[in-house]
């Protein structure tokens, strides 16, 4: 779902007029350290998809959001918020149960499936086999929703995962390498220089072979307001964090 995230980072500007590539796009893994804005970007992606006039958005997270991330523009329209369905599976077992039962759910199929805090579910059973099973089940659920939505539309999938510090547990590195096989599109969030009271991040989007890598600066103001600026193409370093579990990421 690189296109949905790209529209968020481009402040609603799509890659082309009327373009809807949800069915063709690979699932996306959103990666970053603690406090790197993953939840804020996921929520912004939910609002973006909710405004497309398609199905609802399904947002899975272990616990309710303490506050709604702020941003500029009309994205916080009540009609958009009403289309976002929050579910709070408290454990890995409950998450698996929820995903398995999605095939029996009634009502409109989601146009976008989001999972925040994948690492909180994997920590209960950190083996690679369990990570592969959960990733495969997420993809299978998105495919099922795509079939229900109908041809040419599809259900996108974006999953946020907290990365470890460089030189961390080798098991986490293997787990990330495995997940990257299921999620060919990735967006890395890493800290950058910021002004007083600000939190500045560099968002690097690799769309899984469907286009060139792109980068933006994402700045959170002291009041929580999020602003985004596109990073010049010539400034993008294509060698960083490629093929590494941490790659110098937060």
How would you characterize this protein structure?
The protein is of the alpha/beta class and 250 residues long. It has a domain of 174 residues: P-loop containing nucleotide triphosphate hydrolases (Rossmann fold, 3-Layer(aba) Sandwich), CATH 3.40.50. Strands 3-10-9-8-7-1-6-5-2-4 form a ten-stranded mixed beta sheet, with helices on both faces. Strand 8 and strand 9 form a beta hairpin. The longest helix is centred in the middle third of the chain and has 22 residues. The protein is globular, with a radius of gyration of 17 Å.
Summarize the topology:
Layout: H1 2-9, E1 28-32, H2 38-50, E2 57-60, E3 70-71, H3 78-82, E4 84-87, H4 92-101, E5 112-115, H5 118-122, H6 128-149, E6 156-162, H7 170-182, E7 185-192, E8 199-206, E9 214-220, E10 225-230
Helix pairs in contact: 1-2, 6-7
Residue stretches low in confidence (pLDDT < 50, at least 5 long) are: 14-21, 242-250
CATH superfamily of the domain at 1-11 and 24-186: P-loop containing nucleotide triphosphate hydrolases
- Tell me, briefly, the overall form: globular
Tell me about the largest β-sheet: 10 strands, mixed
CATH topology of the domain at 1-11 and 24-186: Rossmann fold
Q: What is the total tally of β strands? A: 10
Helix content: 25-40%
Task: Calculate Rg over CA atoms.
Answer: 17 Å
Instruction: Please give the alpha-carbon distance between the first and last residues.
Output: 22 Å
| Residues in β-strands, percent | 15-25%
Mean pLDDT equals: 81
Q: Write down the oligomeric state.
A: single chain
What CATH first level of the domain at 1-11 and 24-186 would be assigned? Alpha Beta
CATH architecture of the domain at 1-11 and 24-186: 3-Layer(aba) Sandwich
Q: List the helices and strands in order.
A: HEHEEHEHEHHEHEEEE
Coarse structural class: alpha/beta
> Strand arrangement, largest sheet?
3-10-9-8-7-1-6-5-2-4
Protein name: ATPase SWSAP1
GO cellular component, one term: Shu complex
GO molecular function, one term: single-stranded DNA binding
Region (Disordered): 227-250
């Amino acid at each position: 779902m690189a296109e949905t995230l790209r529209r968020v980072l481009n402040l609603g500007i799509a890659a082309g007029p009327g373009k809807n590539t949800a069915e063709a796009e690979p699932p996306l893994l959103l990666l970053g350290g603690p406090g790197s804005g993953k939840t804020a970007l996921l929520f912004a992606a939910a609002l973006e998809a909710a405004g497309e006039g398609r199905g609802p958005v399904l947002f899975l997270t272990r616990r309710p959001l303490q506050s709604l991330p702020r941003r500029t523009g009309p994205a916080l329209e009540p009609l958009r918020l009403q289309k976002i369905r929050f579910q709070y599976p408290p454990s890995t077992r409950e998450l698996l149960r929820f995903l398995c039962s999605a095939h029996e759910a009634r009502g409109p199929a989601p146009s976008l499936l989001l999972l925040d805090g994948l690492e909180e579910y994997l920590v209960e059973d950190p083996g690679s086999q369990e990570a592969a099973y959960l990733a495969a089940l997420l993809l299978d659920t998105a495919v099922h929703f795509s079939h229900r939505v109908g041809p040419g539309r599809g259900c996108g999938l974006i999953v946020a995962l907290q990365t470890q510090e460089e030189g961390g547990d080798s098991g986490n590195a293997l787990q990330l390498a495995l997940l990257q096989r299921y999620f060919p599109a990735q967006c890395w969030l890493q800290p950058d220089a910021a002004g007083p009271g600000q939190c500045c991040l560099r968002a690097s989007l690799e769309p899984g072979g469907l286009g060139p890598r792109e980068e933006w600066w994402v700045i959170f103001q002291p009041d929580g307001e999020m602003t985004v600026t596109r990073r010049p193409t010539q400034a993008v370093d294509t060698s960083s964090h490629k093929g590494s579990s941490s790659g110098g990421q937060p």
